[in-house]
Automatic annotation (TrEMBL):
Residues 113-179 form the Protein FecR C-terminal domain. Keywords: Membrane, Transmembrane, Transmembrane helix. Gene3D superfamilies: 3.55.50.30. It comes from the Bacteria. Pfam families: FecR_C. It comes from Chitinophaga japonensis (Flexibacter japonensis). This is Protein FecR C-terminal domain-containing protein. The chain crosses the membrane at residues 79-100.
Amino acid sequence: MSFKMHIPFLSRLRKTPPAFDHENFIRLLHYYKEGRTTREEDRYIRAELQRNSDACMLMEDFRDTYGIDPILGRKRNRLAMASIAVIAILCAAGLLFAVGKNYRIVPIEQQNYHFRYKTLQELSGIIAREYRVKVIFDTPESASYHYTGMLDMNRPLSAFLEDVRNVSQVEYYYDVEGNLHFR
C-alpha cells in the first residue's frame, strides 16, 4: 500500500542551482583573463560573483596572485588605473589604495614582477628602476627578444640574467661604468 502526498506549492519553488565547482570557476577566470570565454561563461562568472561568497573569495585570491582584475571592463579598467596612479603619487607613506568594491591598502613595492611575452626592451625599464643600473642594447635583436617569467626583487639581478642567457642566445656584460649591456 502506497500513498501519494500532494504539495500544491512545490512546483512553484525555484530549482536549486548545481553545486559550485571551485576548479571550474578558477579555470574560467584564467580563460577570461586570456580572452577565451564565451558570453555565457562571462555571464556565469558575473552571476556567481554576485550570489556566491566562495566565488568572491576565489576572485580575491585570483587578484592577489595575478595582480589584476579580469572582470573590469575596458573603460572601468582605464579609470581604475588612473585612480591608482593618482593615489600612488599622492601617498607618500608607500601605500596604495586599490580601487574596487572594498578599499584595501596594498604595498606599492611588490617583491615579484610576473610578466608574459615581454621584450627585453620593455623589461629594461623595470631592471633600471629596481636595480639602479642603466640598460643598453648592443643589437636590435637582443632588445626584441620576448621572455616570459618572473623577476624576483629579493634575488640578485645576475640570477635573472643567467635565466635569460640559458633560454636564449642573448648575452650580457657590464662595462667599466657599470652599465648593463645585452648583445
